[in-house]
Write a sequence for this structure.
């Protein structure tokens, strides 16, 4: 079986009820530790692999306590409450700290839910942008591996080429998808929600050190509509609302090419200034 | 001491390390159980009361597993990771279920952080709205107690007076503050982030049953600037991005009268259609 590099990266081996082991993937390496989107997807995958799972992901919050060290890690997923139409999950990722102890490197929670077809409407319309074919592919100067795992076609707000402190807004728009073809699913969408470079780099045109502290994803589509997107392009939009004393927020949307809003996401990010 | 009704509602009695008891307050009663904003603030209060606390709240996520029953509840707050400038917390609220068992009614996580004065800028400017004095006070028709705890002056998107299914947008703007004077703090701001009526009522002009499933608050100001707001009015703005198959999202901002963005917040909400 020719497993996709993303599925290899989020793969988990069950060791007990709701307990798994996994390992970081060099293919998704970031500056320090792996790309956070893949770590978030791994936490969600522990829920999806759980035999007690009811429903599909509705919301996911991950808190990045520390950078993962390259190598193996443990994941737990625990259903703490099962209702008629929602199920509440608590997860964490731990690693041996080399001193005989176990450190928590990520905490997370998720809600899964049974979706029923009902009155629905999007209030955040997809912005009018040039179609994919009219936007140039982007060769990212960054030397980190995970960037190579995605095709990106920036429409607005690309990574600055000149770091002159001259930024005046924080909004990026781009077409994006996995570089190696992969059918969209909840884990893939989770990672895509974290694919935007740090807003502070754009707003200040200054490449300061950053790190996501907490990220939340709300899923607005079920498994079938996601699979229906196939390997299609998504339009991603991200912007900040506030940069304040070492932390900025990011609010993001991901639409499919047909203009359906698939996910909204938020994160709060440390920056050094 | 004349304790504010809000501080009575979120009050906790320590019973062990990181364990507390509290009780629902009739003053903040909602249709079923208490106002979620007060429950969220109570979970945060467990962190703020913890002797091991370092820093100030940066982010808070609460997952509402079930409506609280009127009466006592237990709260736990546990620091799972303490870094140089951030501390990660996991909390829950439990209640006896009347069958000899203990049910989880809320799970939560928070990050506290040391803020350092640095380069800062708001990217989401406060919208231009009429000053408080020019906006009429609002007498809410709702029969629930918690609404009386706030002064609200709706500028745009008030609760529909005619439920005719004729809504065409989901955005509300209002001036808001505690009805009984109270100096702003993290717990008060948390509750204010949940003060907006359900977006689906506005978008559809139809009063369907709803319930918040998960809510996140990012704090963009420290304790001193919050206290500096005193009992001043905040401008609250909320709107939905998607209503899809039984769940909608809400994205909200809270500015002080001076136009500083104090908090951004997001929630995902169940609706029956």
């Amino acid at each position: 079986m020719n497993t996709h590099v993303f599925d290899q990266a989020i793969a988990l081996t069950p060791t007990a009820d709701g307990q798994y082991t996994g390992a970081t993937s060099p293919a998704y390496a970031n500056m320090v530790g792996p790309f956070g989107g893949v770590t978030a997807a791994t936490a969600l995958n522990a829920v999806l692999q759980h035999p007690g799972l009811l429903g599909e992901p509705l919301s996911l919050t991950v808190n990045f306590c520390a950078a993962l060290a390259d190598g193996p890690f443990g994941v737990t997923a625990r259903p703490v409450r099962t209702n008629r139409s929602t199920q509440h999950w608590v997860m964490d990722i731990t690693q041996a700290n080399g001193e005989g102890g176990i450190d928590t490197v990520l905490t997370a929670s998720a809600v899964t839910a049974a979706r029923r077809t009902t009155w629905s409407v999007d209030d955040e319309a997809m912005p009018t942008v040039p179609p994919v074919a009219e936007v140039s592919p982007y060769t990212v100067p960054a030397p980190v591996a995970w960037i190579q795992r995605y095709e990106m076609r920036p429409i607005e707000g690309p990574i600055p080429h000149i770091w002159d402190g001259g930024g005046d807004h924080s909004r990026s728009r781009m077409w994006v998808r996995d570089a190696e073809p992969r059918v969209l699913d909840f884990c893939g969408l989770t990672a895509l929600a974290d694919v935007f470079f740090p807003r502070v780099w754009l707003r200040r045109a200054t490449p300061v050190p950053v790190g996501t502290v907490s990220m939340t994803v709300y899923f607005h589509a079920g498994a079938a509509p996601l699979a229906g997107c196939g390997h299609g392009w998504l339009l991603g939009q991200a912007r900040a609302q506030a940069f304040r004393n070492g932390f900025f927020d990011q609010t993001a949307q991901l639409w499919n090419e047909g203009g359906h809003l698939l996910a909204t996401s938020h994160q709060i990010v440390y920056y050094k200034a």
